[in-house]
Design goal:
Layout (H helix, E strand, L loop, with lengths): L1 E6 L5 E7 L4 E5 L5 H11 L3 H7 L1 E7 H6 L3 E2 L10 E7 L6 H11 L7 H12 L12 E7 L3 E2 L5 E3 L10 E9 L5 E10 L4 H6 L4 H5 L3 E3 L3 E3 L6 E8 L5 E9 L8 H9 L10 E5 L18 E5 L7 E7 L11
Parallel strand pairs: 6-16, 8-12, 9-18
Antiparallel strand pairs: 1-2, 1-5, 1-13, 2-3, 3-4, 6-7, 10-11, 10-16, 11-12, 11-13, 14-15, 14-17, 17-18
Helix pairs in contact: 1-2
Length: about 325
């Protein structure tokens, strides 16, 4: 089941189930948000899919019309953006077969490894532990709170001081923390984790700075488990809509050096991230970037991430913010 959040023409929030190969939105009655639906499922000890199915009403809308009107919302949010954590892990994907072979040849020479390559090797050796065992912890980063999350068809705005605005096609997992502190995974969504790769490449210690950017998630939430093998296409479209770069990418545990369970454990092992009522959006990493092929995306161009299993593509145009430089006021 694919669930979407959106607004009606009058601004009211709604949720619905995608049908007819993503062309139609079958509205779920009784809930104004995915968060409300999740809370109902938690309280009734039911699955998210069963609660959504039970609420399907008579109204069916055209997805393309909702998207074109800019009324899509991220598939999960919180009414108070400060109660939504956006985080992620890196160096988790194996890449293509050729790239993997080359990577393996490099990592066998331990004495010459960079810190990043050492982290990658650790994931290969210990990221998929046996049941009952704890695997190696991955690279982890903080991206922001709910205020930085954009929906499909909304612009991704890079700061004026940014050196780059580049896509990162990823899978994100979406969670709500139950009243007893249990993290409840609702499902997964396409994500554009959007980073400043030029800043990051100056020095890997700038990773934290490069990640403090907006991101996009959606349009749909895939309820249930993540397929073990996920195939998609990442594209850059010019201002006139023509594809000027595209490349396939893969995800899912078959293509990762860590299990989803291991990544989840090393995030939610911290009590800070098990605060009742909070929302978490956690990115799982990627192995495919246009910047690796020398592509620099210009304002007005569009990122498009297309994964058939997740419904309609995630599209966002690159923009540049016009906010003034902050002034510090001493007290």
């Amino acid at each position: 089941m694919l669930l979407v959040q959106f607004k009606l023409a009058d601004g009211q929030r709604r949720i619905g189930v995608l049908e007819d190969e993503g062309r139609k939105i079958h509205v779920v009655d009784g809930y104004a948000s995915t968060y409300e639906l999740a809370q109902a499922a938690i309280e009734s000890n039911s699955s998210l899919q069963s609660v959504a199915s039970a609420g399907l009403g008579a109204v069916v809308l055209d997805y393309a019309e909702v998207a074109k009107a800019g009324r899509l919302l991220p598939p999960l949010d919180h009414s108070d953006s400060a109660h939504c954590y956006v985080t992620g892990t890196g160096l988790t994907h194996l890449g293509s077969a050729d790239g993997r072979d080359a990577m393996h040849k490099k990592i066998n020479d331990v004495d010459t490894l960079t810190d990043s390559m050492k982290m990658f090797r650790m994931g290969l050796e210990g990221g998929k532990p046996q049941p009952g065992q704890t695997g190696v912890q991955p690279e982890w980063f903080y991206k922001g709170d709910g205020s930085i999350v954009c929906a499909g068809e909304q612009p991704l705005t890079m700061p004026q001081f940014a050196l780059d605005g580049g896509e990162e096609p990823e899978i994100a997992a979406l969670y709500v923390i139950a009243a007893d502190g249990t993290p409840c995974r609702l499902g997964f969504a396409i994500g554009n984790e959007f980073s400043d790769h030029v800043t990051e490449r100056q020095n890997y210690l700038y990773l934290a700075h490069s990640k403090l950017r907006v991101c996009a998630v959606g349009p749909a939430l895939l309820i249930g488990d993540l397929p073990s093998h996920v195939e998609g296409m990442s594209r850059i479209r010019s201002v006139n809509g023509q594809v000027r770069w595209e490349k396939p990418f893969v995800s899912g545990e078959e293509n990762m050096s860590h299990t989803v369970a291991n990544l989840e454990y090393h995030h939610f092992k911290y009590p800070l991230f098990r605060r009742p009522g909070d929302v978490h959006i956690h990115f799982f990493g990627t192995a495919t970037l246009s910047c690796s092929d020398g592509i620099q995306v210009a304002p007005g161009e569009t990122f498009e991430i297309d994964v058939a299993a997740f419904g309609p593509p995630l599209r966002n145009r690159l923009a540049v913010e016009t906010l003034a430089t902050p002034r510090i006021r001493p007290l």
